[in-house]
Predict the structure.
Amino acid sequence: MSVAVRSQSDERLAKPGLWDRLVVRPEIGALLGALAVFVFFSVVAGQFLSPLGVANWLDDASTLGIMAVAVAMLMIGGEFDLSAGVMTASTALVTAIFATQVGLNVWFSLLLSLVFALGVGAINGWLVMRTGLPSFIVTLGTFLALQGLNLGVTRLITGTVQVSGMRSADGYESAGMLFASTVDIGGTDFQVSIVWWVLFAAVAAWVLVRTRFGNWTFAVGGSALSSRAVGVPVVRTKITLFMTTAFAAWIVGSINILRNASVQANQGIGLEFQYIIAAVIGGCLLTGGFGSAVGAAIGALIFGMARQGIVYAQWNSDWFMLFLGVMLLAAVLVNNTFRRRAERVRR
Amino acid sequence: MIEVRDIGKTYGSVIALADVSTVVNPGEVTCVLGDNGAGKSTLIKILAGVHQHDKGQFLIDGDEVRFASPREALDSGIATVYQDLAVVPLMSVWRNFHLGSEPTVGWGPLRRLDRKKGRETTRTALAEMGIDLRDVEQPVGTLSGGERQCVAIARAVHFGAKVLILDEPTAALGVKQAGVVLRYVAQARDRGLGVVLITHNPHHAYPVGDRFLLLKRGRSLGSYEKGDITIEELTRQMAGGAELEALEHELRAVQK
């Protein structure tokens, strides 16, 4: 009785070649793109390949990359978080206010700010799951609310729109070791945020393809109803993903505040789209259920290389946006082609 | 094994289901037939734990139950395969197969998927059902509709379901594909599972069914054993019986 099915799958399935196997990897487009950008700027901008240049674009890519990886996981899970950008400022502000205005130890302030971040992430997730509204709208709401809170609370407490003076707070040096130190390689200082970026991407990639939670992430993004029907805890999975994004925003906020020792209340606005763009360039589908953490990290790398490369090539930075738009369109086109391959229904 | 007695469900002021009774026994197929809006979906959603009944009794092995979620129904051995929701198209066959019950190795934060075991059990479980796939890593979306239903049925059988609910498994399929799916339904039945087959096609239901529950506008038109009803009678009842005859008259009148 298996004969019918077997002969069917054999006559319709060609043996996949190397190219076919590569092309189904979500990060392959981003990898080729990164290679092209790297070669291009290596040729046109002399300083691009110097140790200082490399340290610069890696640093630029790192904080973006940490967020892009978390946002990619959330997008694979089928949701957006527009509050992610402004969250990086909120977490930095909470840390700074507790450390400078309340006078707490920096480590303890960081802990409070982590609790705050996870709380906001949980509220985002809970609201989306509870109301069934698109996360685009719900997190647009939290985005605006946080933006207002950042400015309002900061002005209320400090009288200005920035919090500074972190350097004199207890524990600033030791916390700085973790989040904002530099590593000397061959006479050039590399930011420790690069290590965080690589680590975060590696852990996320492992979780996504090797754990049950990763499996559930793809499933709830691919089809939440099917997942629920086979017993996947959809609500818990999605809320955890929102909290992961908030956690990443806490890491980035901590890196920023401990590196600069001060924070502007209006920071982070607009960055949320850069995270989404990096994730999409890295192969995430906007509709969820498909994507890669490594791809998102590479997407952020493309960002960093292009943004710094344009500076080194001594072009006007206005061109960056044009570049970004072209990259994004190309990425979406490549993604779309793939999805049609994978979702093609044969009846 | 499963018995429902005078079960009913209302959505606000809409009576979706009223006074429906039937039984599902191991090794037998209970077919639920009815036109669109007859209450078929409501009935299986109650059995599957998606909705809760608000009248009547729902018994499993003689004990009254009420499921709060599909997970609870699954834990009681009731697995449901939905027409459109059987699988996640972009995920590979073996990941779909194990979704919600993934095999793992290691412990604590290092607990991870046992991918080798997952692929192997998928391949063997599908082979036992007579489904031979070249590659369990291919996305389910690349399979045909019938093959997807078969994967979902094999999954339910493999994970020890005692009762299998199939929601219109043949509705979107061609004649040949529908035949393949019905063969797996028969195979699941022969393995001793109780099967609930929802369909609006009596020609699909009659060959595999042991009992036929006819629904119309949320009410039961009767529950028949196979010996008590012929396929012609089944078709006539489903199509509305007297109404259809009246329609035939009308059409004939038009022709003249």
